[in-house]
Amino acid sequence: MCGIIGIVGESPVQDRLIESLKRLEYRGYDSAGIAGCVDGQVERRRAKGKIRALEEVLASEPLNAKVGIGHTRWATHGAPSETNAHPHKAGRVTLVHNGIIENYAELRDSLTRRGRTFESETDTEVIAHLLDCELEKKPPIEAMKATLDQLTGAYAIGVLIEGEDALVMGARRGSPLVVGYGDGEMFIGSDALAVGPFTNRIAYLDEGDFVAIDHKTARIFDETGQPVQRPVRTVAASAALVEKGNYRHFMEKEIHDQPDACQHTLSAYIDPTTGKVQAPGGVDLAAFDRIQIVACGTASYAGSIARYLFERLAGLPCDVEVASEFRYRQPAVSPKTLAIAVSQSGETADTLAALRWCKQQGLTTAAVVNVHESTMAREADVLFPTHAGPEIGVASTKAFTSQVAALMALAVAAAAARGRIDAMEEKRLSKLLLEAPRLLADAAQLEDEIRALAPELAKARDVLYLGRGALFPLALEGALKLKEISYIHAEGYAAGELKHGPIALIDEATPVIVIAPSDPLFEKTVSNMSEVAARGGPIILITDTEGAKNAPANARVIVGPTCDPFLHPLVYAPPIQLLAYYVAVQKGADVDQPRNLAKSVTVE
Ligand code: AGP
Is residue 464 part of a domain? Predict the structure, then answer.
């Protein structure tokens, strides 16, 4: 995740930009840069590598500016280099960016046709050019709105404009951005921690908002360009890293963190410029004839989703087992098996024991882990990282979708390595994956509709979740989420399995939640919903626009984003997480620390 800071200051900002960037180092980065207004001109300093390298540049060429922006870059489009480092410059515009601009190739082509030339390989540079073009016709606020209207993707940006010496602009969609209120000085930052050294009065921008700050004010606009107010809160700067922002619970915040977490995770696997997908650590996925996934709870459902993809896309047999069973079962494993432990914490005792057992058998071991200093990350032969950032809520949300994203990318990488897909298909699938952050942000926008279902659902004693194919494990995950935070009994079933037993449970008091965006199996799920409807079971159908057309008459329908079915298990996670969340809130449960549960289970 790239880090962003912007300051409209009364005194020189160079050292403060650097101080803030150092605070953002935890997000991971491979280059850094700052820019500032000096005598009506914008100057920038950039360096590949650590902030220390940028400081060396600044030692010989200080930046004597009172207004500036800074950035730590985690490479996505284009290798880590000084040229690709932010800020990027086009005409009057100097800009930093976190996220992915999905339509950058089209925008770049059209800008090139208009005579614009690019110096970097980044998607970011197109935003700078677009805004510069708009500024030829419009004042900054209107130009910003017109620019944002042309972008597809999930992003946060910070901007300086030459000739506007006391102005920093920012915008967010999918990736967070905060505004910091100082004393005669104002700030923007990618999180509260970025502005933490300077102020503890913070406003969180909403999805689609953009902002213009000067020395004293922040003018905030919503995505339609209407001026809006966002509440200013006082936060404890020291706690900013694990701050809830405007959210009531960490779980809610973490649901909304998912576009960023997913994007950051995918950037470790996909080169968006070439569309190539690779396993980190130089692992040759063609060298294995089987995959064995071991994990617990939510992480095991991420593994179960991956099984569909490893087998379907890569033709690679894949077993998934809960680690607590696997470790004692003495399973028969073939020597060319890649054992993958999936774990947020990297410390779960059963998963760790299963991983160690696989190692003892001489298997190559990998760990899909979020805490990179954890025991599993250290003991596995290779780390397949997720970059979800710290997950505080006991109920896993962003760690889950980051695991799914990483495993999806690995399945594509395995398919390419094994010659099961050609370069064009690899590119198509990687492009789809890079759309996931935006789609996750869209899915989280269903919050209000989902909240409206909570009062009724909170009365239920039992709830069933149904899904087919790779959405079956998502049904299991939905049921687990509801159980663990609302204490309502819930079970997930493969939709086709309903008639083999669970249908006996259906009555007017047993809601059935069906996760079924339209795909080749949708018609079959419609039949299953009819079976439920015929027995008076209340149905909540989570689907897409196409699926909604075929919803049973009595179903409550939640319409999520339309996307390729490949992405469904990822993109349809936020609605089921939000559903569990709002039911738990409705019941007054302790959402972030549910009874009897621990975040990391280090005992058997
Ligand atoms: C998820 O909501 C749970 N709290 C739990 O199932 C969790 O996923 C499981 O304990 C595994 O934890 P890990 O990912 O840290 O290994």
Answer: yes
If one counts the domains in the chain, the total is 3
Is 459 part of the annotated catalytic residue set? Answer: no
Residue 304 inside a domain? The answer is: yes
Total H helices, total E strands in the chain: 20, 27
Together in a domain, 503 and 403: no
Q: What's this model's pTM, rounded to 2 decimal places?
A: 0.80
> Hey, CA dihedral for 562, 445, 404, 583, is it positive or negative?
negative
Give catalytic status of residue 599 as yes or no. yes
Same domain? For 232 and 314 the reply is no
Domain that holds residue 568: 445-586
Which ligand 1 atom is the nearest neighbour of the CA of 345?
A: 15
Query: Strands 512-515 and 539-543: what pairing?
Result: parallel
With beta carbons less than 8 A apart as the criterion, state whether 410 and 384 touch: yes
Residue 595 forms part of a structural domain? no
Q: How far apart are the first and last CA of the chain?
A: 34
Domain containing residue 562: CATH number: 3.40.50.10490
Beta carbon of 258 within 6 Å of any ligand 1 atom: no
Percent of the chain topping pLDDT 70? 98
CA distance 176 to 262: 13
Q: Is 189's C-beta closer than 6 angstroms to any atom of ligand 1?
A: no
- List pLDDT tens digits, range 508-547: 999 999 999 999 999 999 999 999 998 999 999 999 999 9
Q: Which residue of 254, 255, 294, 296 sits with most ligand 1 atoms within 8 Å of its CB, as the best mutation to test the pocket?
A: 296
CA of 251 to the centre of ligand 1 (A): 14
